[in-house]
Amino acid sequence: MSRFSDRIKADLTLLLVTVFWGTAFAVLRIALEHHVVHYLNGLRLLLGAVLLFPLALWQKERIEKAHLPIILLTGLILFAAVGLQMIGLETTTAGNAGFITSLYVVIVPFILWLGWSEKPSFLLLVAIVLAVIGGFLLSTGGSLRLMIGDLWVGASSLFWALHLVIIGRFARRLPPLSFASGQFFIAGMLSLLAGLFLEHPSQADFLAILPSVIYTGIFSIALGFTLQVMAQKHTPAGDAALILSLEAVFAAFFGWWFVGEVLLPVQLAGCGLILVAVILAQAKEFHSRMSTPSSS
Known about the structure:
The protein is mostly helical. The protein has twelve helices and no strands.
């Protein structure tokens, strides 16, 4: 029973992560007006690393030499994912970006199938299709006009999928706080290095993005990604991708609540489809649990 209970707790933790990420979306869109993508990413990632490092020491977590390649790899992938996504957001609509990013729910099971021969169940495939249709309706209102930035966001969705898969494969072997802090530090330093060569912000730009750096550094990075690592010790990557697709639902909800953005009926239908997809994924787990004889 404890394994099932751990799974429920992990899924609820991922749900909390989507709330953090959904609220951060509007904050980041405002900061993007200053065209300092890499500095913004670098500062918020490094803030996350700095916040977590003392906690890792307090928990007496140790990074072994065998952990370093995974930390380096996830740091590189995270740098690519956040960088490409933010570059794309500068030259596409928020709706397009939200939908195209959500396509990682398709890419994750495909990677698992090719790389580890983990064939997705029929119920999971149905849930994925519903999530993609729901993401399309919610993010675009049923009308997608392609833009140049969509290519960048599409590339970022591939890296988000890789990030999810790698964390899912190795999370149980890694100390969560040290691992998260390490990948944030690598991704943050690479982002700052890119900003040093590609961007020329003024002091006013830095002051303008500071609230976004603080908010997303604490909630999206330090809390969000760390909780993701902890949760994926118990939630398979394919199911985790579906739960995390709720980020688009929370982004739309908080946009309506705080900014007054209008949600059309077709977008509400998209929210409903994503919710149904997530429930189907949980039904698959519940059915599996009920079909397995209890060992207690």
